Amino acid sequence: xxxxxxxxxxxxxxxxxxxxxxxxxxxxxxxxxxxxxxxxxxxxxxxxxxxxxxxxxxxxxxxxxxxxxxxxxxxxxxxxxxxxxxxxxxxxxxxxxxxxxxxxxxxxxxxxxxxxxxxxxxxxxxxxxxxxxxxxxxxxxxxxxxxxxxxxxxxxxxxxxxxxxxxxxxxxxx
Length: 174
Ligand SMILES: [Cu+2]
Prior knowledge:
Blueprint: H1 2-28, E1 38-45, E2 54-63, E3 68-75, E4 80-89, E5 92-97, E6 102-104, E7 109-112, E8 117-122, E9 133-140, E10 146-152
Parallel strand pairs: 1-10
Antiparallel strand pairs: 1-2, 2-7, 2-8, 3-6, 3-9, 4-5, 4-8, 9-10
Bound molecules: copper (II) ion (CU).
């Protein structure tokens, strides 16, 4: 009997640290969905000019995770949305679709803006009016799709207030 009792004691002592450690481990494993690796902020759009069939949208992306790329976008207005790059070539401003996406460096902030990469809303059947919300779905090479709401701001207005006025710096000349 003594042997069994000591064996039981030994088992209990061995089991004790495990039992104590369990609740801590359970707490450490958050069952909730992980926070998205990429955050969007300051999403805005512009009202369309009378009869205009194309709109634009801009936003700031903060990539908390590993290096990624913004590779596509969908919008709830118009027939299709594209990622465009505005650039000045030989003194002439022009824009073209970005086929390989926009680089989002790890830990970096990239701002889509009128003079750089932007979201083009094409084939609009209704004008975009001030105060309207445009719902965008951003698609990335690695990260999960991200739903973003862009507010149509009055002409001349930009989301200057509230921080996030970071330089994009993603596209150097040449
Ligand atoms: Cu464009």
